[in-house]
Structure formats: structure tokens, C-alpha cells
Design goal:
By secondary structure, the protein is α+β, with helices and mostly antiparallel strands. It has eleven helices and nine strands. It folds into three domains: 59 residues, Orthogonal Bundle (Arc Repressor Mutant, subunit A); 84 residues, no CATH class; 88 residues. 47% of the residues lie in helices and 12% in strands. It has a three-stranded antiparallel sheet with strand order 1-3-2. This is M1-348.
Length: 254
């Protein structure tokens, strides 16, 4: 179950420990992270392991833990796997993992709403068969903030993807030029849901990309495109991803 009482940073840290020390036991992990004799963090360690197992970052064999792939932690990869869970035909639409993975899409993206104060109400309104408590929603907000989906603001959540997360996605795409709507639909949406119930692009995705303007990409306007324009004044409909400086250097050296 992905709804665990976690904060976020410890998930990456424990994953990297498992990756670096293949075959580690849970008790050994607890010893590594139990900084004082007071208290017991076993439940926290077990919660993190459950998340990593459900996301298929690790596997468990006879009580010992292994990374499925020898790859560094990637927030982009987390959201790819959450997207896969939310789209899986084998996942019950009232299951806790489905709710966890689709909450952002249901509450924010489809409504084109960047800020929501009462996520608890909307989740339980949309998913009537499974009651989700405030503690689980708070845990979701903590993890999503840590993974770069937005920020916790007062009792709510502001869904504006962090520049670092969008940069990861853009770097994986590489060179690309075309309609802004198509870019978001084809390149962003498979990782981070960004298509509203009206078929438009979620404002949070557009405003997030604005943070990369003149850095990793250029957003501009072209006349007579059969796609909607976006931005504060509906002034953008075209995007061009820039080459990384290292890519240019590699090309010149060949």
C-alpha cells in the first residue's frame, strides 16, 4: 500500500542504501537509521519498504532486499510508475494504490485547479467505497512535495511541478520542436498527468514549464496553428527544447 506514514526524503535514502548494499536485511536497515536508543523506527522502515516494493524499485527474497535495477533514484521514474498503476486494468479503481496514484489527476489536473485546501473531502467524494483519513492525505502531500509535484501550503496543496522534476522530463525527451499542446500531451502526460477534463493542458504544467523558459527550452507563438494557446495571456503555442551544451560539444568532437 502506497499510503504510508512517510515524509519522502527517507524513501530515496533507504532505496539508495538497498541499492548499494544488495541483499541487506530489514534489521540492518533499522540499525543504520536508528540514531538514538529511544524509540523504534521499525514501522517507518517497513512503510518505506512497502512503498518501494509497490513501485517495483526493490524486490524481497527470503527476508533480504535487492534493488530491481542498479539505477540511482529518480523522481521522474516514480511518477512514471504511479502513472502505470493509475492506468492498470488490473488495479481496482477503489483500491488504495489506485487512489494514491490518481489523486493528483482527479483533484487537480482534471479540474484545472492548482490549489486545493480540502483534499480529504474531494478524495472521499470521488472514491465513495474507500474512506481515506486525514493522516493518509497528509502523508500523500508530504511525499508529493518531496518528489517535486508541488508544495504544501497551510492545510492544502499547491500543484505546481518543481523545475527540477520538469527538467528531468525535458532532458529525457532531448531535441523536440512543435506545438506546445502536443508536447505536453505526448511527452509530459505519460509521466505527469496534464490533460484536463476539457481536453486542455493543466495550468500547473504550463506554469511549471515557464520556469525553464530561456534555459532548457523556448516557448513562443506561431500563427495559424490548430492548437490552443496557453500562458497568462494565451500567448504561447509553440515550444522548442534546447540542446544541452554537452551534446553540442560531443557533436563537434566527432
Amino acid at each position: 500500500m502506497l499510503f504510508q506514514m512517510c515524509y519522502g526524503p527517507e524513501i530515496e535514502s533507504i532505496y539508495e542504501t538497498i541499492r548499494e548494499q544488495s541483499g541487506i536485511k530489514i534489521n540492518t536497515l533499522r540499525e543504520y537509521y536508528q540514531y538514538t536508543e529511544e524509540g523504534d523506527i521499525t514501522s517507518l522502515i517497513e512503510g518505506v519498504i512497502t512503498i518501494l516494493l509497490d513501485l517495483h524499485f526493490i524486490r524481497k527474497e527470503e527476508g533480504v532486499l535487492f534493488a530491481v535495477e542498479d539505477k540511482e533514484w529518480s523522481n521522474k521514474e516514480v511518477f512514471k510508475r504511479l502513472s502505470k498503476i493509475s492506468l492498470s486494468q488490473n488495479e481496482d479503481e477503489e483500491s488504495l494504490n489506485y487512489i494514491f496514484s490518481s489523486l493528483y489527476n482527479q483533484v487537480f489536473v482534471k479540474q484545472d485547479k492548482m490549489f486545493e485546501t480540502n483534499i480529504h473531502y474531494h478524495v472521499n467524494k470521488n472514491f465513495t467505497k474507500t474512506m481515506i483519513g486525514h493522516e493518509k492525505i497528509n502523508a500523500w502531500k508530504r511525499m508529493m512535495e518531496s518528489w517535486g509535484l508541488g508544495r504544501r501550503v497551510y492545510t492544502g496543496f499547491y500543484a505546481l511541478p518543481h523545475i527540477s522534476l520538469l527538467q528531468e522530463i525535458v532532458e529525457e525527451v532531448g531535441e523536440w520542436e512543435g506545438a506546445l499542446h502536443l508536447f505536453c500531451e505526448e511527452k509530459i502526460h505519460p509521466v505527469l498527468p496534464c490533460i484536463t477534463s476539457e481536453g486542455m493542458i493543466f495550468r500547473g504544467a504550463i506554469f511549471g514549464l515557464m520556469g525553464l523558459q530561456h534555459k532548457s527550452l523556448e516557448i513562443s507563438y506561431k500563427q495559424d496553428l490548430p492548437f490552443k494557446s496557453y500562458g497568462p495571456n494565451q500567448e504561447w503555442n509553440w515550444i522548442q527544447l534546447k540542446k544541452k551544451q554537452g551534446d553540442n560539444d560531443d557533436t563537434m568532437s566527432k
